[in-house]
Amino acid sequence: TGFGTPNQDLILKGDLVIRDAKNIDRVRFDRESGGLFLKDENGNLIFHLEFPAQVLRFGGHGRDADLVLFARDATSLTDDNKAVLHIDTDRGLIQLGAAGRGGQMVCRDDKGEQTIFLNADRAVAVLGANGKNGEFFIQSEDSRPRIRMRAENALADIGGTGVDGELRLRMANGKTTLRARAQGGDPGPVATLDVGGGGASGSVRIL
């Protein structure tokens, strides 16, 4: 170990270890890998910055791992609600936006082209573009597709795989005024379109 003057580097020829009063290694800098290890009061590893793999691991052993990032104009680092990015592992939550900044997310393909865009300020989700057709699926609990929307042929599929499709349009008061149903079973398949009801007269226009 070498100790220099106040204007010189502190050189340690070996690992740097900090132990608590119970003689437990709480902090360790590994000289071979450059890794950083932090342990709790019971000796459990709760933080590991690994080199040369460049991997950061933290949490576990009763501790929730959070990553909280603030904007440059933040004046306090204690209010998580003002963080513009918050990853909360205990709730499985990724929160984007706050402190005057709307949350946004951009997903790109392997060529770097944007194909998915989410914007919280406008409550917008854009799927597709740059050579990719947008597609949207909603599946049942047994992983069967129930609703599918595809931009390539302006298609909306509702139902199938064991479930009849149904589309309802409601007025502001919540009453249904248009209902389209595709029904199977006895006495046979039936396709119905109900227009009107709920206090509204029905009309069909063909232009």
The total of beta strands comes to: 17
Shape: elongated
Mean pLDDT: 89
- Give the topology string: H per helix, E per strand: EEEEEEEEEEEEEEEEE
Cα Rg: 29 Å
Widest beta sheet: strand line-up: 1-2-3-4-5
- The SS-based structural class is mainly beta
End-to-end Cα distance: 89 Å
Stretches with pLDDT under 50, minimum 5 residues = none
Query: How large a portion of the residues is in β-strands, by DSSP E?
Result: 35-45%
The number of helical segments is 0
Largest sheet: 5 strands, antiparallel
Helix content: under 10%
What does this structure look like?
With about 210 residues, the protein is an all-beta fold. Helix content is about 0%, strand content about 40%. It has a five-stranded antiparallel beta sheet with strand order 1-2-3-4-5, with no helix packed on it. Strand 15 (about 165-170) and strand 16 (about 175-185) form a beta hairpin. It is elongated and about 90 Å long. It starts with 15 loop residues before the first strand and ends in a 12-residue tail after the last strand.
Features:
single chain, 207 residues, mainly beta, five-stranded antiparallel sheet, three-stranded antiparallel sheet, 17 strands, 41% strand, elongated
Strand-helix topology:
Blueprint lengths: L15 E4 L5 E5 L6 E4 L5 E6 L4 E4 L7 E4 L15 E4 L4 E4 L7 E5 L5 E6 L4 E4 L7 E5 L5 E6 L4 E4 L7 E5 L5 E8 L6 E6 L12
Antiparallel strand pairs: 1-2, 2-3, 3-4, 4-5, 6-7, 7-8, 9-10, 10-11, 12-13, 13-14, 15-16, 16-17
